[in-house]
Amino acid sequence: MTHVDDNAHLALRPFIKAHYHFQFLSTGFELGIFALLGRSPGLTAQEIAQHTGLNHQPTRILLLGCTATGLLRKEGDGYHNTPLSEPLSGAPDQAPASYLPWERQGIYRAIGWFGEALKQDTNVGLLREMPGTAPTLYGRLAENPDLEDLFHTMMSSVSTLVAGDITQKLDLSAYRSLLDVGGGAAINATNLAGRWPDLSVTIGDLPSVAESARKKVAETGLESRVHTVELDAFQDEFPAGHDAVLFAHFLEIWSADRVRALLAKAARALPTGGGVFVVTPFQNDEETGPLRAAYLSAYFHTIASGEGMVYTCSEYEGWFREVGLEPTDRLMLGPDTVVVCGRKL
Ligand SMILES: C[S@@+](CC[C@H](N)C(=O)[O-])C[C@H]1O[C@@H](n2cnc3c(N)ncnc32)[C@H](O)[C@@H]1O
Questions:
Q1: Among the four residues 2, 47, 300, 332, which has the most C-beta atoms within 10 Å?
Q2: Which residue intervals define the domain O-methyltransferase C-terminal in the entry (predicted)?
Q3: What residue ranges define each of the domains in the chain, with the CATH number in brackets?
């Protein structure tokens, strides 16, 4: 009989039990325990139960889960946040807190269809778990406005994380008019317009998103230079009159064939010398990581579209060349986001 090595069993435990870890984390967050202990460190189980409304034994079970996984620390009878959970006690619309409601309501059940999505080669998770009829996440979000809000809160916080880097490293001084395809909740558009006073930005997105982007832009006072248009990037030609095109967290959603077609569309819309900027999660050219590329690739295939993944910079640069764009640079934004830059020949 083969003897199972205890160390191997323990080493695999974080994978085997990952779903419990997420439940301790997201339930603790949803019940406001990390925010509560941020304000009032050292509360007892009984005091925590009074705030959450849970009965005594459910409270013990949740606190045991959180302390055993290192999310909370117990000192005497009192509970405290740890460096892991402390960042979750702050603003709910900022990362990492902003990730949790979306992961719980948008992803958690749907990603359980990962294997089936690979076998059927389509986004089974979305089709099984999110109400509605649209074939992609973005269409289905328009059918579920509460989820659409959660998604854009999460996405805005992701773009905010790299906002400092993008405004410092991406030199747009040569351009006057940027088309931001799939521009979402206007974070990149308003940051870039704020950084480059001679630049106008047009956000092109699906109708419900373009409408909320318009409201967000109005709150920033940049509406004379940041415009929004309804655009279906697949059905419509790109509006003329821009000398640069930004695809931020957009191309990786789609299949290689559709990425090529979108890049060709950008090239057609641009004058000679025009710029193309692809902001995307980074996958190294050896195709071994980093982890974020692996998570997001599974998410695009299982949920978002059933056809995309995080591509390498080399792949983008090859597609640039195929459609008449010259690759000019790769700019890292933080540890795992990159801008692949090109110019129309
Ligand atoms: C992952 S979000 C990225 C948002 C924004 N660019 C950012 O970086 O924060 C993808 C965006 O693409 C938009 N989108 C999806 N399908 C689209 C289409 N066919 N045409 C235009 N925009 C689309 C979605 O509505 C969403 O705002």
A1: 300
A2: 134-324
A3: 6-89 (1.10.10.10), 152-344 (3.40.50.150)
